[in-house]
């Protein structure tokens, strides 16, 4: 059985779609993101279409994650965010969240939530190889 | 109030203010056969554990009980509800954390936290007192 201890963020997979934020029953996830323009990958693809500059293809925009916080003083460890994430960017990470001497210490940012994600990725990569 | 002499040596005596489901876990952490006292022995550190959902209706009672343990009391918030209201933070009748009433020295996260989290905190508290 999976231990409902802490939740890990695999940042590379997160698209800032906000589904976890909205599905969370306790609203304990807070995401800040902005969108950035991506240059057209095939400049000739959009030629002749309305809204497309004649010299280049269609621009695209993608979300860039600025912050991802989980407030462990609100979380009920139900795992709905993990279930709902379409990109598997969240997963159970085993051990329980450590206690702190301040309430602010119960809010973990993207770096704390991502701890172990890099090692996990390397392990996954080795398994593929 | 009843005080659990946690380690049986009078170093730390614990009052568990068991308010809701987290109390199942905090009660489970109590060492088997730990002496139960009616008063705080001299030289002991009183520890108040708030486990479970704190409602506005009982918040005054909880504050009075903790304050009656004196200025040296070490307050532990056990679980999400005691820390900030937990899943009920938006409820009209739930206090948004024990720290709205008294100073909290340590927060244990979880919904519920494992009993071992409480045990290890009390053990570290005891060893910190022993070394000071």
Descriptive account of the structure:
The complex is a heterodimer of chains A (129) and B (132). Chain A has four helices and five strands. Chain A is α+β, with helices and mostly antiparallel strands. Chain A has a single domain (7-128), classed as Alpha-Beta Plaits. In chain A, the strands form two sheets. Chain A has a three-stranded antiparallel β-sheet with strand order 2-3-5. Chain B has one domain (3-128): Rossmann fold (3-Layer(aba) Sandwich). Chain B has helices at 22-29, 56-67, 80-84, 115-131, and strands at residues 3-5, 12-18, 36-37, 45-51, 74-78, 106-108. In chain B, 32% of the residues lie in helices and 20% in strands. The radius of gyration of chain B is 14 Å and the shape is globular. In chain B, helix 3 (80-84) links the parallel strand 5 (74-78) and strand 6. The A-B interface holds A 25-27, 71-77, 96-103, 105-106 and B 80, 83-87, 89-90, 97, 99, 104-111, 113-114, 117, 121.
Blueprint (SSEs and pairs):
The complex is a heterodimer of chains A (129) and B (132).
Chain A: E1 7-9, H1 19-23, E2 29-38, E3 60-71, H2 80-84, E4 90-92, E5 107-108, H3 110-113, H4 117-128
Antiparallel strand pairs in A: 1-4, 2-3, 3-5
Chain B: E1 3-5, E2 12-18, H1 22-29, E3 36-37, E4 45-51, H2 56-67, E5 74-78, H3 80-84, E6 106-108, H4 115-131
Parallel strand pairs in B: 2-4, 4-5, 5-6
Antiparallel strand pairs in B: 1-2, 1-3
Helix pairs in contact in B: 1-4
Question: Which descriptors would you attach to this protein?
Answer:
heterodimer, A: 129 residues, Alpha-Beta Plaits, three-stranded antiparallel sheet, 4 helices, 5 strands, 23% strand, elongated, B: 132 residues, Rossmann fold, six-stranded mixed sheet, globular
């Amino acid at each position: 059985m999976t231990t409902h201890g802490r939740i890990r963020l695999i940042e590379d997979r997160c698209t800032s779609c906000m589904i976890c934020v909205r599905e969370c029953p306790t609203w304990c996830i807070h995401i800040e993101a902005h969108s950035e323009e991506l240059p057209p990958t095939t400049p000739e693809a959009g030629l002749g279409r309305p809204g497309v500059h004649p010299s280049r293809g269609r621009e695209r925009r993608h979300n860039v994650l600025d912050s991802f916080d989980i407030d462990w003083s609100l979380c009920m460890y139900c795992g709905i965010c993990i279930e709902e994430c379409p990109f598997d960017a969240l997963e159970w990470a085993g051990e329980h969240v450590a206690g702190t001497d301040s309430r602010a210490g119960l809010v973990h940012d993207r770096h704390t939530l991502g701890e172990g994600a890099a090692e996990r990725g390397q392990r996954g990569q080795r398994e593929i190889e | 109030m009843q005080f659990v002499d946690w380690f049986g040596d009078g170093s730390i005596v614990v009052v568990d203010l068991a308010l809701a489901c987290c109390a199942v876990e905090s009660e489970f952490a109590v060492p088997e056969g730990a002496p139960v006292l009616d008063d705080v022995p001299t030289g002991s550190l009183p520890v108040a554990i708030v486990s479970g959902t704190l409602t506005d209706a009982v918040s005054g009672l909880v504050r009075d009980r903790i304050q009656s343990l004196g200025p040296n009391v070490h307050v532990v918030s056990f679980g999400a509800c005691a820390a900030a209201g937990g899943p009920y933070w938006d409820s009209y009748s739930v206090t948004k954390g024990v720290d709205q009433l008294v100073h909290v020295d340590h927060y244990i996260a979880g919904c519920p936290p494992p009993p071992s989290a409480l045990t290890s905190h009390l053990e570290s508290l005891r060893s910190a007192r022993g070394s000071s």
